[in-house]
Amino acid sequence: MPSDEGERLQKVLAALGWGSRRVCEDLIAEGRVTVNGEVAELGRRVDTTVDDVAVDGVPIGARPGLVYYLLNKPRGVISTAHDPQGRPTVIDLVPGEPRVFPVGRLDGETEGLILLTNDGDLAHFLTHPSMGVDKEYVALLRGGSRLSEGELRRLRQGVDLDDGPTAPAKVGQRSDGTVVITIHEGRNRQVRRMFEAVGHDVERLVRVRIGPIVDGRLRPGAWRELSLDERRELIRAMAEAGRR
After folding, report:
1. What is the distance between the alpha carbons of residues 143 and 235, in angstroms, rounded to a whole number?
2. CB under 8 Å to 235, separation ≥6 — which residues?
């Protein structure tokens, strides 16, 4: 691109919440920003309609028209764009335009936070196994049962499932009997299967955090757009996870 066309890279970064122009210049000078896969230099100009901008290897969604929704998925809603059985989907709960898709999945009976976007690059990075962004859930076990110390230890160390052993999880048991569990993998029905592996069925399961994204006030079925700060923190969390 000719040097007098497009917007200066530090201006684009600042507009996306990465800090002041000076802070964004420092990011570029440190070699942490790439454009179309190449390390950017100070003074670089970009065309946000075509150029792919990334910080620490994670795309930052600089292109216009990208949207990022946070939805509190109710029980019984399916985490797909279309369901052949005609069940309600997460797509039915957010604006129809621009078209978006869910980032990862929650099974039909699981409630809680899920992201929807039309940013395919960010979605790919967030769901890639190497990213390993933490997801936190609150579980109520069937019959009000509680985990023994041995069962807690097994979950914390990782349990064997039919598709292989899980990574160690962070697990805590509250005084009200609910269990808080944090994983960074994204296998199908993983949390439910982990509890089944130690002898317990889950009666209710709610995802309450995706990386740094939390919202205890978003009612079931409601959605909102991610703020610039939340998008920035999510990208930072993905970058950190990718370095683990």
Report:
1. 39
2. 55, 56, 58, 60, 122
Is 107 designated active site?
yes
Please state whether beta strands 202-210 and 111-117 pair in parallel, antiparallel, or not at all (unpaired).
parallel
- Phi (first) and psi of residue 179, to 5 degrees: -120, 130
Global pTM value: 0.90
Phi, psi of 7 (to 5 degrees): -105, 150
Q: Bridge partners of 138?
A: 180, 206
* Catalytic residue (one of 47, 107, 121, 215): 107
The token pair that represents 193 in the structure block: 């299967």
Q: Which amino acid does the sequence have at 222?
A: A
The one-digit pLDDT tens for each residue of the chain (244 residues) are 444 678 999 999 999 889 899 999 999 999 999 999 999 999 899 998 999 999 999 899 888 899 999 999 999 999 998 889 999 999 999 999 999 999 989 999 999 999 999 998 888 888 876 667 899 999 999 998 999 999 999 999 999 999 999 999 999 999 998 999 999 988 899 999 999 999 999 999 999 999 999 999 999 999 999 999 999 999 888 888 766 6
Distances, alpha carbon 130 to alpha carbons 105, 107, 171, 227, in Å: 17, 22, 22, 25
Let me know if 140 is exposed, middle or buried by CB neighbors in 10 A (0-12, 13-18, 19+). Answer: middle
